[in-house]
Amino acid sequence: MAPAKNRSKRPTLLSRTRPPTVKSKHAALSAKATRTLIRSHHQLLKARAQAEAAGDEARVSSIDAQIQANGGLESYQIASKLGQSLERGGDSSKLLVDWIKPQLKQWMASIPKLRVLEVGALSTKNAISSTPALDVTRIDLNSQESGILKQDFMDRPLPSTDEDRFHMISLSLVLNYVPDATGRGEMLKRCVQFLTSTCSIQFVPSLFLVLPVACVDNSRYLTESRLLEILASLGFYLAQSKRTAKLIFQLWEYTGDGSRKSLKKEMLNPGKKRNNFAIILER
């Protein structure tokens, strides 16, 4: 029997999976070119993580060169901004604001604003940033605006008091950026540590999650029911869900009543044309 893994190991930083950025060309991108750039960037990051895990430094350097040739992280972010622009389907946080409007109306004016942590923030002008009842903290690995803190979520110091925690965390097209299945599970577990323990009638601590539909519909190792099992194990309850042709939007309320069981990578949906997206949850 293999020796037990050290459970106290420090979470892998997202920044370790991303090579240095280079200055990109700000040329206009078509919708097809935008999708191609984003898809290529994800594939290269996955290959880089595999090469790094195998200790193949030559392969890592080669992939870094390919990523930089494509414009690096900055070009990826420009493409992502275009994908979230109004002419390309809009800002995903608009749906989040619509979902929580009933709770916001009940939130007393005398109570401080709801604290929101937006991971992977691309703009200071989206819907949640324009909602008066919300106090938004924005972080990203490669900040594009002055109102966005350059920070790796996996390296953000853990809160020491409940006042340092958040009523809501937004992971909009962030979890799918993490290149390995274990890292995705660690990110979800870390979200729990950043959510306030205060559960009131007005607002329940929540996680806003946005993923490409292909992650749950066309994966060998993840289905929507398995995603539900993973989040439920961490103490979340699915409060809202919506699908488009490309994306799945979910609002998870944190109840704290989770089994905290381990969920390994296993074949759930076989098929040659399916992808390998997975989430591994370790206790």
Helix-strand blueprint:
Blueprint: H1 31-53, H2 57-69, H3 72-84, H4 93-106, E1 114-119, E2 134-140, E3 149-150, E4 168-172, H5 181-194, E5 206-212, H6 214-217, H7 224-233, E6 236-243, E7 247-254
Parallel strand pairs: 1-2, 1-4, 2-3, 4-5
Antiparallel strand pairs: 5-7, 6-7
Helix pairs in contact: 1-2, 1-3
Please tell me about this protein's structure:
This protein is of the alpha/beta class and 283 residues long. Helices cover 32% and strands 15% of the residues. It has two domains: 14-88, no CATH class; 93-254, Rossmann fold, CATH 3.40.50.150. Strand 4 (168-172), helix 5 (181-194) and strand 5 form a beta-alpha-beta unit. Helix 1 (31-53) packs across helix 3. The chain is globular and about 55 Å long.
Sum this structure up briefly:
By secondary structure, the chain is of the alpha/beta class. It folds into 2 domains: 14-88, no CATH class; 93-254, Rossmann fold, CATH 3.40.50.
SSE order: HHHHEEEEHEHHEE
Distance between the termini: 19 Å
**What is the domain total for the residues?**
2
Total helices: the number is 7
Low-confidence stretches: 4-8, 18-27, 85-89
User: Under the CATH scheme, which architecture of the largest domain would be assigned?
Assistant: 3-Layer(aba) Sandwich
Please tell me the overall pLDDT: 80
Indicate the radius of gyration in whole angstroms: 19 Å
- CATH class (first level) name of the largest domain: Alpha Beta
Reported for the largest beta sheet, the result is:
7 strands, mixed
Shape: globular
What's the CATH H-level superfamily name of the largest domain? Vaccinia Virus protein VP39
Helix percent band:
25-40%
| Class of secondary structure makeup | alpha/beta
E-strand count? 7
The proportion of residues in beta strands is 15-25%
